[in-house]
Specification:
heterodimer, A: 448 residues, alpha/beta, eight-stranded mixed β-sheet, five-stranded mixed β-sheet, 15 helices, 19% strand, B: 497 residues, six-stranded mixed β-sheet, 14 helices, elongated
Chain lengths: 448, 497
């Protein structure tokens, strides 16, 4: 049992081992945890305390946190942080060693806990999908798991490759065409309210080799997580459904595998997209924007949303720009951008606004088609190496959203925890986007 | 510099006697003033030409008629776009290539204010800039001919007065562009510092510090960068005291404004050497310094009523046998030690010492630094915006507003503490680089350690200092990006009443 105690010096919480067996006690002896440079102020801070408790407990199988004396909301936040930090993808371990976290509180039935537990379940679902290796989570398997969300009260429709051909989804079909597991578009709906929905569009690349423009070998294994955007959108809907939230939301997920094969699409190919526009392929590793372009168009056409937000592990450029601490936020609608940024701050999944503009549009002008997919390598500054590809990609997507208020979250770099830090264990998926998108859906419903 | 003159249009719509004439038309506007007079003289031919060419006044649209009337050699009609979105400096710039075959041209400015007339003049002057010092065999017919632009405005005196405060800005821009355009075999740190002396005749106090002084000031980081080159480093301190006695007797003088520029006259990368492709661009790794020098010239030239200090650190980052190595630990003037992980992250080492020293010496109200600091900022923002990092909301907002007003936009970037994590060193207080992700932000976090908590803004201008193509007011080449922005910042907020 870890007991929290405020010390006279503000900002320090002392965690003390109490009822542990002797050997465990030694392991967690005399721990001091500094929390954000001051007394915990809000739920985010209490989540950080909970996570810090778990970090301090080390390998202990069973951790109980004594939260008596805390306000119920703070206790819930504490438990949320602890649970998120303790989570591991254990499905493939011969001897899974789950950690059990118990919260000792005077108000075990706080209604806030029910909502938090729903969100935690949804995050765990999303993290599981992101963690699953690509030999297990093929496009076929991913859409099967999405279909299973019907049990949670979501309406699920899977549009298979044949139907995609009828819809003219040339982007999604080209990207997924090289794989023996055909691409799909999966539509999830949570209708907790009337009126037009907010739509989330997710990039769901179960694996991304880069295609013929193949990636370097170093680090390629991380590309199993290139469906984190789709998993986050689905997780957000799952969380709304589990909480019976009074919002109307849809998720449109573009699911494919980008591999090298006899039927892979090629640099130089010109694709006709679902919207009818033509795109010249420059780099088959810039596939995310192609599948998103079709998904955005079809989502708008079919769902008539009042706002549309896409989430995608889209560019290495955003990683260079913003690192692992914030995702890039692009868009055309000031109110939606403000709401998205505020939702991110509220749940601790932080965004940073990034630019669109005419200058970027110029860079993706094609001599042969309506658009180039990206600016060619070598066309940038300083020997061609430096290209603002995140802004180019966002500018590309903008061509497919028409007048619908739109925001784009480039979450590359945010899907997996680089270090043991905050709410994530090292190397584990973060579930970034689940809470943010669910929060945004609720704010959007309130503001309308 | 293009010779700019102002003149009153002849009464009753009299037309210029010779040369070229320019009419500016907003979208949907009809011919008026001199345009109407010319149309009448042409028997309605101008209106017919405008219709035939489907000229609507869209921004940047132009129509040229040769020998339209009398002795006029050429008529250019230029579209200004919608009335609300007109950018007169850009219109002035857009005229220049259209008039390159003419020696003299007049611009009719009916309906525009004196300030707008001066903006047209500024844009034209800025676009007509050319760095041709090293062209020895250019044929005369290949050179642009335009030598004199006369702006015809009824508000003659007001326009001249407005131009009086813009002309020094143009001259400051040229000072900066000249410095940035110079190749590194000409513009060594010593040569660059000597050229700053030219500002003395504008009333700027210029002080030059060399390695001896730097050693005394404990500039370990700056000198570490310098030690691989035969060309000695030079730091230049420029002071313009324009606030004068306006505060009145007994009132404490306002704190000065401090501008600091990175002046790496050539950056090979040092031992962490850069790839060969594009390395020639590294002659403009002193563009931050060039802009600060040009800014001081502009402020002094227009007698800005503010106390301003400009400090630039010139140094060459070479691979001599004594060049600093990755792994070296240097001690900055502030006392903080830095482990040099990558010798190509040298700009922040220079800025660390220059910022610490100049903040300590001048106790400024705020400090703005300009530096071609990171390639990562180009990956983030391309060539559309400079990166703006600041610990002060007011200063950041003012910089962004000034940038929008003059067409030099700065995009705010984050400064969260979490971005400093990568700078932790096992052996020293700081590393000079973390990983690649978020590296522009990490660079800003590094610099932040040396500004003593002062209101501070850092402009990463790596994507903006040099233009690979002509734009409205900037010919291909050195841009002097940030100079007009900072001149505007000073004028709007720091020159009292």
């Amino acid at each position: 049992v870890l007991r929290l105690r405020r010390t006279p010096s503000a900002g320090m919480l002392v965690v003390r081992p109490a009822d542990f067996p002797r050997d465990e006690q030694r392991r967690v002896a005399a721990l001091e945890i500094q929390v954000g440079g001051g007394e915990p102020r809000d739920g985010r801070d209490w989540e950080a305390v909970g996570a810090a408790c778990i970090a301090a407990a080390g390998e202990a199988r069973r951790v109980a946190v004594d939260a008596r004396g805390l306000a119920p909301a703070d206790a819930v936040a504490l438990a949320t942080g602890a649970t998120l930090r303790a989570w591991r993808f254990a499905a493939l371990k011969a001897v899974p060693s789950p950690q059990r976290v118990e919260l000792v509180t005077e108000a075990p039935d706080a209604p806030a806990w029910t909502a938090a537990a729903a969100t935690l379940d949804a995050i765990a679902w999303t993290r599981t999908q992101v963690a699953e290796p690509a030999n297990r989570l093929s496009p076929t398997e991913f859409s099967r798991r999405l279909r299973a969300l019907r049990e949670e009260g979501l309406h699920v429709e899977v549009i298979e490759a044949d139907a995609l051909r009828d819809l003219g989804a040339g982007g999604l079909l080209a990207v997924g065409g090289g794989s023996p597991h055909p691409p799909r578009l999966v539509m999830l709906r949570w209708k907790g309210a009337e009126g037009p929905p907010i739509a989330f569009v997710g990039k769901g690349l179960c694996f991304d080799t880069g295609g013929l423009s193949i990636k370097g070998a170093g680090g390629m294994e991380a590309m199993r997580a290139d469906m984190a955007g789709a998993a986050a959108c689905a997780g957000a809907l799952l969380s709304l459904a589990k909480r019976r939230a009074k919002v109307h939301a849809v998720a449109v997920l573009a699911i494919a595998e980008n591999v090298t094969g006899a039927r892979s699409y090629r640099p130089g190919d010109v694709l006709r997209m679902a919207s009818g526009r033509t795109v010249e392929v420059v780099d088959t590793d810039a596939e995310g924007r192609l599948v998103l372009a079709d998904a955005l168009h079809l989502a708008i056409q079919r769902c008539r949303p009042s706002a549309i937000v896409d989430a995608a592990t889209l560019t290495g450029s955003i990683l260079i720009a913003l690192g692992h601490h914030r995702a890039g936020l692009f868009g055309t609608d000031a109110a939606l951008l403000t709401a998205a940024a505020a939702a991110g701050e509220a749940v601790g999944e932080r965004l940073w606004p990034m630019p669109l503009g005419e200058g970027f549009r110029e860079a993706i002008r094609s001599p042969i088609a309506d658009l180039k997919q990206c600016a060619p390598a070598g066309s940038g500054a300083w020997g061609g190496r430096l290209l603002p590809d995140a802004s180019h990609a966002a500018t590309f997507l903008r061509e497919f959203v028409g007048d619908t208020p739109w925001a784009h979250l480039d979450i590359a770099g945010m899907d997996t925890a680089e270090d043991a830090e905050g709410l994530h264990a090292k190397g584990q998926p973060t579930g970034f986007g689940v809470r943010l998108l669910a929060e945004l859906a609720e704010r959007h419903a309130r503001d309308r | 510099m293009l010779d700019i003159a102002f003149s009153k249009p002849a009464p009753s719509g009299g037309l210029p006697k010779a040369g070229a004439l320019v009419l500016l038309l907003a979208e949907g506007a009809g011919l008026a003033g001199m345009g109407a007079a010319l149309d009448a003289a042409m028997g309605g031919g101008l209106a017919r030409a405008i219709a035939a060419a489907e000229f609507t006044g869209r921004k940047g649209q132009s129509l040229t008629l040769y020998a339209p009337h009398g002795a006029l050699t050429r008529l250019v009609v230029l579209g200004l776009g919608s009335h609300d979105g007109m950018k007169l400096d850009e219109a002035g710039g857009a005229l220049v290539p259209l008039l390159s075959k003419e020696r003299e041209a007049s611009v009719a400015l009916d309906g525009l204010t004196a300030a707008q007339a001066a903006e047209v003049a500024l844009g034209a002057a800025l676009r007509a800039y050319r760095f041709d010092r090293y062209r020895t065999d250019e044929k005369p017919e290949d050179k642009p001919k335009l030598a004199r632009l006369t702006l015809l405005t009824p508000e003659l005196n007001a326009a001249k007065a407005a131009w009086g405060s813009l002309r020094p800005v143009a001259e400051g821009v040229f000072t900066a562009r000249d410095l940035v355009s110079e190749p590194a075999n000409v513009l060594t740190p010593i040569e660059a510092a000597e050229r700053c002396r030219a500002l003395e005749k504008l009333g700027v106090q210029v002080e030059i510090l060399g390695p001896k002084e730097m050693r005394r000031l404990n500039f370990g980081a700056y000198l570490g960068v310098a030690q691989g080159s035969d060309n000695e480093p030079r730091m230049v301190v420029m002071r313009w005291n324009g606030a004068g006695a306006q505060g009145g007797k007994g009132r404490k003088p306002a704190k000065p404004l401090l501008f600091v520029g990175k002046g790496v006259t050539f950056d090979t990368g040092g031992i962490s050497i850069k790839p060969a492709g594009g390395m020639e661009d590294m002659k403009w790794d002193m563009a931050g310094a060039g802009t600060v020098i040009g800014l001081m010239a502009a402020l002094a030239g227009r007698k800005a009523r503010a106390d301003v200090v400009g400090v630039v650190g010139f140094v060459e980052n070479m691979v001599g046998s004594n060049a600093q190595r990755p792994g070296d630990v240097v001690k900055t003037a502030s006392g903080l030690t830095v482990e040099v992980i990558n010798t190509d992250a040298e700009g922040r080492l220079v800025l660390a010492d220059v910022l610490h020293y100049s903040i300590g010496r001048f106790d400024p109200a705020f400090v703005v630094d300009l530096a071609t600091l990171t390639g990562a900022i180009i990956i983030a923002l391309g060539h559309e915006h400079a990166g703006l990092f600041s610990n002060d909301e007011t200063l950041a907002a003012r910089i962004q507003a000034a940038g929008r007003a003059v067409g030099e936009t700065a995009w705010r970037m984050p400064l969260d503490e979490s971005y400093a994590k990568g700078l932790k060193s096992d052996i020293a207080d700081l590393k000079n680089v973390g990983g690649r992700p978020g590296s522009s932000i990490a660079a800003a976090k590094f610099i932040e350690r040396f500004v003593s908590g002062r209101p501070w803004a850092h402009l990463d201008i790596a994507g903006m200092a040099w233009s690979s193509k002509d734009t409205a007011t900037v010919p291909k080449g050195a841009t002097a990006w940030g100079l007009r922005l900072l001149d505007r910042l000073v004028a709007e907020h720091h020159e009292g009443q």
